[in-house]
Write a structure and sequence with these properties.
CATH superfamily of the largest domain: subunit c (vma5p) of the yeast v-atpase, domain 2
Helix content: 40-55%
Family: Belongs to the V-ATPase C subunit family.
Order of helices and strands: EHEHEEHHEHEEHEHEHE
Strand content: 5-15%
Keywords: Hydrogen ion transport, Ion transport, Transport
Protein name: V-type proton ATPase subunit C
Subunit structure: V-ATPase is a heteromultimeric enzyme composed of a peripheral catalytic V1 complex (components A to H) attached to an integral membrane V0 proton pore complex.
CATH architecture of the largest domain: Up-down Bundle
Pfam family, one: V-ATPase_C
CATH topology of the largest domain: subunit c (vma5p) of the yeast v-atpase, domain 2
Strand order of the largest sheet: 2-9-1-10
Number of domains: 3
Length: 377
Amino acid sequence: MATRYWIVSLPVQSPGATASSVWSRLQDNISRHSFDTPLYRFNVPDLRVGTLDSLLALSDDLVKSNVFVEGVSHKIRRQIEDLERAGGVESGALTVDGVPVDTYLTRFVWDEGKYPTMSPLKEIVGNIQSQVAKIEDDMKVRAAEYNNVRSQLSAINRKQSGSLAVRDLSNLVKPEDMVTSEHLVTLLAIVPKYSQKDWLSSYESLDTFVVPRSSKHIYEDNEYALYTVTLFAKVVDNFKVRAREKGFQVRDFEYSPEAQESRKQEMEKLLQDQEAMRTSLLQWCYASYSEVFSSWMHFCAVRVFVESILRYGLPPSFLSAVLAPPTKSEKKVRSILEELCGNVHSIYWKAEDDVGVAGLGGESEVHPYVSFTINIV
């Protein structure tokens, strides 16, 4: 599937020429000189022209609006890819109205029910803009809700997988590791990994009320080791100060099976919420991508219509087409289109040294015919 397409229009102005005859000439030239270039008719309906002043005013807005609509289309596509990746599913081909994206573009049919051709062009463009803007706003809200749950899970995972100095210790400590009585209490000490011998030889001397041989190795990571130590409750504060002076950190910890179970249930609920929201957001994105891409193609049809009239004049008489030339064939296809344009002054549309200036379509390339590029990925 091609991902980069040209939408072009050629004037039908030669004596006796018709859109069908220009189409036949285009097909013949492409098949003879650039046979590897896919070529399709782009069916633009007879839209309501209005006044030239209104078309000129609209043309300025079309360029900015195209950037916006195209941008939303790509945002939704990227969101779909992220959600599919997060779910561990293989990315599938996106569809628009039930057909593949490239097929929808190359077989485009105007939706009269959605955009009546007798409506003013400004109204059609305004409807497309407002529909796409609403979808973008909805996506921001939905994505924010989903990302909030992901952030909560990430924070919990960091607490459970970070270093012993900061991580949650509840899943490392067992009930039998803790001694709690009227006078005795068990503390958890975080000892630098390479200072464990120092800890074992000195913890009993940090205070006279430490229970001898009470320190027990619980766990260690790349940086630290986790030890328990039992002592009289009345000297806890003094022990913490003396331990800190020797480079040992005593973590505040209270063993609570209820709290541990509550955290486990919270984690499970967040995981369920995340998957439910991911699935819901993905389905919404599939539907919204179809809607936005369809709106974008209708917008392109309006753009071709307006720019063709401003370029070739009234009454509207032009052939519009979609091409997907390989990079190596682009120059040849351009020359074919220019020749069929039949503009004896076409040399004046070329910028010096192949550096273009902005034309009606706002493109960086300038040609004697209407042309703009769309990237569907």
